[in-house]
Automatic annotation (TrEMBL):
Keyword Membrane (UniProt): yes
Name of the protein in its database record: Uncharacterized protein
Positions in coiled-coil regions: none
UniProt KW Transmembrane keyword: yes
Residues annotated as transmembrane: 12-31, 65-85, 97-118, 130-150, 171-196, 216-236, 257-284, 296-322
Keyword annotations from UniProtKB, A to Z: Membrane, Transmembrane, Transmembrane helix
Signal peptide residue numbers: none
Source species of the chain: Micromonospora saelicesensis
């Protein structure tokens, strides 16, 4: 494979990725050496002390993926980074896209969507875990930015507002409606004490473990965040509104819209597929019975909601990307030239 010089923009992304990889590996080596700053054991112990990492200071031997396994992943990321910088091009960026997907799936941003509002509302939370997930999200975004910047040159993006196809709008409305109907409505009823689709025991657990502010936050944040998908089918998703200081009327950079939407779509689909697979596995092994599924049908349906939400968001994002692509702009320009009077 020939060595290709990468752009200055790609070099900046590569430098940021290198800082992320070095910092992540250094932290894991620090943990292996015996330090525990930033480490959490809340998913491995029965201690209830999320603010203190659930007894992280008392952990003697690190789990493999928290120690040497994570170091190995860091080395693999460094190799991917080096290949992307040295061999810029279509094939070289595949590794960076794969690294971005790995980091984002490991971060599981959907967990952050629920836990951060709950923590801000006063619920005891494991801030070490939340911080680590935010760092992984940042790493995924950095590698995605590197892949986008080091790929083949595509020329300038479409300029001006271009209406998206009707099918894109329809999928966008589905992506907006699903978290409202499939998440906000049932969770709002449960917070109010209405046992629709769940057992009385589960309802009692919700009332005992969720304060009113936390319940409201968990209920409203996902559908409110879902409203951002409308930007993919509206003018303000392609051009900044005129009331935005300093940016009024300017073109919205495509990565600013496509990358976050793609990340969320990937996370939602991954969560939906994995959760359904776990449920099916438990049904096959007998750990869960069909009667439990029917008694908690609303909880089971939530898994399908996440999957459908992710798919609809992915299709909408694809429609936005196609509409704002260089090819779309060239086609529109050609159409105008053909129909213009000579």
């Amino acid at each position: 494979m020939a060595v290709v010089e990468i752009s200055n923009r790609a070099r900046a992304w590569a430098l940021a990725c290198a800082v992320f990889v070095v910092a992540a590996v250094a932290q894991r080596l620090y943990w292996i050496a015996g330090g525990r700053w930033g480490y959490t054991a809340c998913d491995r112990t029965d201690l209830v002390d999320p603010a203190g990492g659930c007894g992280a200071d008392q952990v003697v031997a690190l789990p493999f993926w928290s120690g040497w396994g994570a170091v190995g992943v860091g080395v693999a990321l460094a190799v991917v980074l080096g290949c992307t910088v040295r061999f810029a091009g279509t094939w070289a960026t595949i590794g960076s896209w794969a690294a971005a997907a790995l980091l984002l799936v490991a971060a599981f941003p959907l967990h952050l969507v629920f836990e951060i509002p709950a923590a801000l509302a006063g619920r005891p939370s494991d801030w070490r875990d939340l911080g680590a997930r935010l760092v992984l999200v940042a790493g995924g975004v950095l590698f995605a930015g590197l892949a986008n910047a080091s790929g083949p040159r595509r020329g300038p993006a479409a300029v001006g507002y271009r209406p998206v196809p009707l099918w894109t709008r329809r999928w966008a409305y589905v992506a907006v409606a699903l978290p409202v109907v499939g998440w906000a409505v049932p969770h709002g009823l449960w917070v109010l004490g209405v046992p629709i689709g769940i057992s009385e025991r589960e309802l009692n657990d919700i009332e005992r473990n969720l304060s009113t502010p936390t319940g409201v936050a968990i209920t409203l944040v996902p559908p409110l965040a879902g409203l951002l998908v409308l930007g993919l089918v509206q003018r303000w998703g392609q051009q900044f509104p005129r009331w935005v200081p300093g940016l009024n009327g300017r073109q919205v950079p495509r990565p600013l819209a496509v990358l976050p939407a793609g990340v969320v779509a990937l996370t939602l689909v991954t969560y939906g597929v994995l959760s359904i697979a776990v449920l099916v596995g438990r049904l096959l092994t007998g750990e869960t019975h069909w009667s439990d599924v029917w008694d908690g049908w609303a909880v089971t349906a939530t898994l399908l909601v996440f999957l459908g939400w992710g798919v609809s968001l992915a299709v909408t994002t694809t429609g936005y990307a196609l509409t704002t692509s260089t090819h779309a702009a060239m086609t529109a320009s050609q159409d105008r030239s053909v129909h213009e009077p000579r």
